[in-house]
Design a protein that fits this description.
By secondary structure, the protein is of the alpha/beta class. The chain is built from 10 helices and 9 strands. It starts with a helix and ends with a helix. It comes from Ignisphaera aggregans.
């Protein structure tokens, strides 16, 4: 007798799981915005009417549906990506290359350490950080964090570094007196600087993106950075 009841309960549990899975699939077909609106509409009157029809306490039924809706919402949640910022860097270019689909939400972090911690704390689904470059080799902080954390590499991509000299629109090359950029970018462009900008003053900044943002606000100042940064901050390359 008990064995028959256990078997029937197991069958019911399987059917519940199958129905939850089917429900989540149907919700996903609606698309993110419509699905969220539908799930929100379940709160209150709809759940109360079902509770009344089947003679169940509405607070318990609301709790059950909230949990089921959470399962459906999890499958709809846009991917969140953390990357070494600020915006306009080559790491953001790599991020956009890997996660090209619409609906992905990206967040810049100020350090490689912060990207790793965001992934570990589940603040984001994935993190994007530089691993190596052709001039300086492996990025030490990334290797250290890989050894110290539980985060693992799940994908890699290569981004061709194409530097641009970016300044306020209308600025001529002979008007440039100061060049700003990250030390690594300056090193990668040293031949151009020595041959075309020998008499300019070189100043370092924490990132190429920050350099671009500052340069386009000043006369006689240019920055070495990406086209993405130029587009983002309104400069001319």
């Amino acid at each position: 007798m008990d064995r028959d009841i256990h078997s029937e309960l197991m069958d019911i549990d399987k059917k519940i799981v199958e129905l939850i899975k089917k429900r989540a699939m149907l919700v996903s077909i609606l698309g993110y915005d419509k699905a969220v609106a539908f799930l929100n509409s379940r709160r209150g009157s709809i759940v109360n009417s079902i509770a009344y029809e089947y003679g169940l306490p509405d607070d318990i039924l609301l709790h059950i549906f909230s949990y089921i809706d959470g399962i459906a919402a999890a499958s709809l949640k846009p991917l969140t990506i953390g990357f070494l910022g600020p915006r306009g860097t080559f790491t953001e270019e790599a991020t956009l290359k890997i996660f090209s689909e619409s609906g992905v939400r990206t967040t810049p972090y100020i350090s490689i350490y912060d990207v790793f911690r965001a992934v570990e704390n589940r603040e984001v689904d994935y993190g994007v950080v530089p691993l190596e470059n052709s001039l300086e080799g492996s990025v030490g902080e990334t290797l250290d964090m890989l050894a110290q954390s539980n985060v693992k590499i799940c994908s890699e991509t290569e981004v061709r570094i194409s530097h641009n000299l970016i300044a306020k629109p209308g600025t001529r090359l002979d008007e440039v007196k100061v060049v700003l950029s990250h030390p690594m970018a300056i090193a990668q462009c040293r031949n151009f600087i020595y041959t075309r900008l020998r008499n300019v003053r070189i100043e370092t900044r924490p990132s190429t993106s920050e350099a671009v943002k500052e340069a386009i606000e000043k006369d006689g100042v240019a920055a070495i950075g990406s086209k993405l940064a130029a587009k983002l901050y309104g400069g001319r390359d």
